[in-house]
Amino acid sequence: MANIFEDEQLISNRRKNHIFKNKKPLDHRFLPEKLVHRDVQIREIARNWVDVLDNVTPSNVTLYGKTGTGKTAASKFAREQLIEAADNENIFVKIEYIRCTDFTTEYQVIAELCNRLGRDVPNRGWTKAEVVNAFRSLFRTNAFGKKLQLIVILDEIDILLDKDGDGILYTLTRTDNVAVLSISNYLDFKNLIKSRVTSSLNDKEIVFPPYGADQLSDILSERAELSFNDNVLNEDVIPLCSAMAAKEEGDARYALDLLKNAGELAFDEACENVTTDHVKRAKERIEHSKVSEILSTLPLQQQRVLMAILTLTKQKEEITSGKLYESYTEISKKDAVTYRRIFDFINELELLGIISTNTVSRGRGKGRTNIIKLQCDENLLETTLYSI
């Protein structure tokens, strides 16, 4: 069989691509030469890291902010700047980025750091003490009289702490010449840390607020100039993407996804320009993908709870927890969980953004009631739920 990527039609389409000149800048992992609207936060990181240029271990830092507010990009931008400055001053600095969705235990993180720094450590099989000792041996003065200074960036640290406890922070903060920059979407992630570790961490906190529509517009305009050919974006495309993303809690990743998907739709349809219609349909595509991904990973009982909410929504019913449980038990029959367990499912589904709850007062003597509402398209939910 001939190589599918050598198909004449595919090659022809690539060569005739009048929409994109380079998609890479529309990826949220792309690091531009300048991060707009994050100067303040980058300078704060720099202020806390600058001591390393005097061979002094810098302060530990924690970055807070919701998804798509530039935390990871700012930390990587500051990393590149510090590496350049350290090279110029002949300072032995390493800055290692660890995504805690990939390394979810203390052992995995320490072993990975050892391997990156030139000390072979197996992914499993050693005791914790052996791995920690191997790690700490890296910080002895080398043959050239230079000591290693290490900054470890732990992205989405709450995932690691939730799964494996705070041992990783204790080990790193109790190792000479090591500083930690933690990144979390949650302001309360320190509830996962014991007091002795909090004291040892002694971090400086930097908050990343959501982007406003005007700021998102600036970000998209900069990326669009790098990504799209001249005059293919209609003038109202970027403002619409920015406004939609501002409603999604100022998420720059979402804004970039919208713009990229809109461009891909225009390309697939051989359109001359990217229009607001492409943006609106891109939103539907992204929403479908997001909901499908979330639903496919939900446990069966939570899927049944959603089926019950969908049924009541289509019946135009006001959804109280009592009515929801009745509908859920009808769907689940003899395989239903307890009424109390349903509240856990409701909280989890609300955290995922699929539903919302609102407590209302029924008046004097009638108490308060939770009202549950869907936060995604009914047809999309129904199609996805019944195709799993």
| CATH superfamily caption of the largest domain | P-loop containing nucleotide triphosphate hydrolases
Major sheet size, sense and barrel closure: 5 strands, parallel
Give the averaged pLDDT, no decimals: 90
The CATH class name of the largest domain reads Alpha Beta
The secondary-structure element order is HHEHEHHEHHEHEHHHHHEHHEEH
- Count of the domains: 3
Distance between the termini: 33 Å
Beta-strand share of residues: 5-15%
Rg estimate, integer Å: 25 Å
Shape: globular
Q: In the CATH hierarchy, what is the architecture of the largest domain at level 2? A: 3-Layer(aba) Sandwich
Strand order of the largest sheet: 2-3-4-1-5
> According to CATH, what is the topology of the largest domain?
Rossmann fold
Structural classification? alpha/beta
The total of helices stands at 16
Proportion in helices:
40-55%
Low-confidence stretches: none
In short:
With 388 residues, the protein is an alpha/beta fold. Helices cover 49% and strands 12% of the residues. It starts with 7 loop residues before the first helix and ends with a helix.
Give a description of the structure.
There is one protein chain. This protein folds into three domains: 39-207, Rossmann fold (3-Layer(aba) Sandwich), CATH 3.40.50.300; 211-295, Helicase, Ruva Protein, domain 3 (Orthogonal Bundle); 298-385, Arc Repressor Mutant, subunit A. 49% of the residues lie in helices and 12% in strands. It has 16 helices and eight strands. The chain has helices at residues 8-15, 39-49, 71-88, 106-116, 128-136, 157-164, 167-173, 195-201, 213-227, 237-247, 252-268, 276-297, 300-314, 321-332, 339-351, 378-385, and strands at residues 61-64, 93-99, 149-155, 178-184, 204-207, 319-320, 355-361, 368-374. A five-stranded parallel beta sheet has the order 2-3-4-1-5, with helices on both faces. Strands 6-8-7 form a three-stranded antiparallel beta sheet. Helix 4 (106-116) runs parallel beside helix 5. The radius of gyration is 25 Å and the shape is globular.
